[in-house]
Hints:
The protein is α/β, with parallel strands linked by helices.
Amino acid sequence: MKVAKLSRRTAVASAMAGLAGAALPARAQDFPSKPITIVVPFGPGTTNDVIARQLGQDMMGTLGQSVIIDNRAGATGNIAADLVAKSRPDGYTLFIPSVSQILNQVTGNATTDLTKDFVPVAFAGKGLYSMFVPNELPAKTLAEFVELARQQPGKLNFAGYIGGVPQFLGEMLNRAARINTVMVPYKSTPDALVDLLANRIQVWYTPVTSGIPAYNAKQARMIAVTGDTRASVAPDVPTFKEAGYPDLTVEISYFLMAAKGTPQPIVDRLYGAIDKALQKPKIKETLAAQGVEEKRGGPADLAAYLAKEIARWGDIVKLSAPAAK
């Protein structure tokens, strides 16, 4: 009798487990049933924001639901990261970070962990950083700038923020060229640009996407970019590598993540919608015109990239230890 009862209990438990297992794919199949939100860690007009809006508009057609762009700037991206990490792991809240969040993590400034608090979804594009100087600065090339900096040690300033890419680019150039330029902290890109145009600072390191308007309007001089090859939107501007500084070869990837625990079938559906958008010529052209180049890949590709880049930037931060403090 006891054996019979045990068998019935086992059968019921097995049936319930089977139903639970079957429920997950069913939920994924029904996904999405309400709007999806992409949380951007910076303000409107930044590269992360530009990509999110292009993808979101196309994803609506593929997924049949609205995609809301939520700009949560502040705390070098931690506000947005915290929001997504603490959201329900159901695929309805996505995060679009970049190397800034990797730097937060390796410098100890992050309040979340990209590899522990999120699941990778997809790459969203890539871009380069650029180096601008004021038009009135007597340096039209990187070589001329380095010579000028050597003549005036400690006199030339660059805009940056603690723990950000501009800080480390400035320190990397200081080390590679044996010069001494000084970082002036800024809270926003627009404020830094205003001071660059007024020659109150002499260097502005910024994503090509952010710098293109100033470049096209010839408000300031772009003298180098961080890629292995030149930026397609600024083909006349050489790379740091061409100028003899290969250590400043830095590619910035943008990607989407969801809260840890998001079911894989839902992650895969999101990846499919994102990748479909990135293959469309109109989206490619629109992003390329703003300095964002194609970079595609799914969860496994993104996981491998994060492991590699966290290690790489960890080494860079160690070499720039005085600047990181």
